[in-house]
Amino acid sequence: MARECLNASALLRELSQTKKGTFEMVIYKNLLDIKRQLRAGAYAWPGGYPLYFITQDGAALSFETVREEWALIVGDYLQKTNTGWRVIGCEVNWEHPSLYCDHSNEKIQSAYCG
């Protein structure tokens, strides 16, 4: 599935159709919410399902990338721009066995697939 061609509304629609468990995608309105998720960790509670961040342009980002590139994410919010770093949500990777961070190429663990 090519995520790079999806805009934010199409991505949200796709995720709502493929959602498998009880964890629903979290939509962020501000930096404080993103920071809280970073502190809470890369796994949903309850269940321990692996999470990843989603940018406004549909990119998947690992928790490590969001921590390392925090200044760029903050810049997008403060300047009210979208240079590719505007994080809009967090989602469980339910069954996508080949989901990779679009920045670091780090594999994002799947809840139900190898």
Secondary structure blueprint with pairings:
Layout lengths: L7 H11 L7 E2 L3 H10 L10 E5 L4 E2 L1 H6 L1 H9 L8 E6 L22
Antiparallel strand pairs: 1-4, 2-3, 2-4
Plain-language structure description:
This protein has helices at 8-18, 31-40, 63-68, 70-78, and strands at residues 26-27, 51-55, 60-61, 87-92. The protein has 114 residues and is α+β, with helices and mostly antiparallel strands. The protein has one domain (3-92). A four-stranded antiparallel β-sheet has the order 1-4-2-3.
Total strands:
4
Tell me the overall shape.
globular
Strand order of the largest sheet: 1-4-2-3
The ordered H/E elements are: HEHEEHHE
Runs with pLDDT <50, length 5+?
Answer: 1-9, 15-22
Work out the strand percent: 5-15%
| Radius of gyration, taken over Cα atoms and rounded to an integer in Å | 13 Å
User: What structural class should be given to the helix and strand makeup?
Assistant: alpha+beta
Please, what is the average pLDDT? 85
Précis, in short:
This protein has 114 residues and is α+β, with helices and mostly antiparallel strands.
Q: Characteristics of this structure?
A:
114 residues, alpha+beta, 4 helices
